[in-house]
Amino acid sequence: MTHYQQRLKIKTTGKSFSNITGNVQSVVATSGLETGLCTIFLRHTSASLVIQENADPDVLTDLSNFFAKLVPEDGKSYSHSAEGPDDMPAHIRTALTKTSEQIPIAQGRLLLGTWQGIYIWEHRRQAHYRELVVHIAGI
User: Fold this and answer.
1) Which residues lie closer than 8 Å to 92 by C-beta, 6 or more apart?
2) Which pLDDT value is given to residue 98?
3) Whole-number mean pLDDT of the chain?
4) Exposed/middle/buried for 116, CB within 10 Å: 0-12, 13-18, 19+?
5) Which member of 46, 97, 117, 136 has the greatest number of CB atoms within 10 A?
């Protein structure tokens, strides 16, 4: 079994979904591995990784709207506010989602479904540079 690892830095635009499917697939291709498992880890606590529909943008809008209602940014509900009123809600949203994903690889390609894309979900209002670790194990 061979291991390959690469870090990616992705700039988000603030409170949005950044489709990183192509970035991750590029790392898989560079690894030269044909069969295995790709693990993606986001090194942050106020953004998430999600695998979600890539065809209809209304899905991502509906997710954002649902989480805005579930975890409000009212500036009153949380003790932690040192980094602004959007920070603690961002941490909660990250805790409710995830910071890592695992995707099988076959024939040198991610085995995502037809309508699946990999996204960084930025929970903060401002743009950030987010760092991913892409680790591939396989043959």
Assistant:
1) 71
2) 97
3) 97
4) middle
5) 136
